[in-house]
Amino acid sequence: MKLFSALVGMCVLGIAVPSAHKGGRQSDLPCVTPGTQSQITVQAIKLELVRPDSNAIRFRNAVGIAGVDSSIVAVVTDTVICTRIHQVVDSAFQISPPSDTAYLVVLRVGPRFVSFPSVGPSQSALYITDTNFVWKHFVP
Q1: Residue 121 banded pLDDT, cuts 50, 70, 90
Q2: Rounded alpha-carbon distances, angstroms, from residue 43 to 6, 9, 34, 50, 106
Q3: Which residues make Cβ contacts (< 8 Å) with residue 46, sequence separation at least 6?
């Protein structure tokens, strides 16, 4: 599984994003539970944390997850966090009006939240924020 080895050079860093919508939704979005296909992406992310090759090391350093133990990667179930992640991603990609349906699986990976679409062809895209909901990286 070399899902990310080709992505190291494509990691988009430092995208300026306006502040996320703070009052655009009437209620929190539920967290998406990973299905079978999403579990493959979750496992690939965990594998990326332990791979010793130079591409994996560069990737981890570039996105701020170097030194994170794969055993602490967790699916987020807090609707407040999931809602904020959706707001940040919607804002980064100028989705307006903001999504009113949850579409991202959200993981806590050490000092980052890593999210990705739960279904569809863009499932290998990763959206990365810090734990203060500041946009950090997009990995296509």
Answers
A1: low
A2: 17, 21, 11, 11, 13
A3: 70, 73
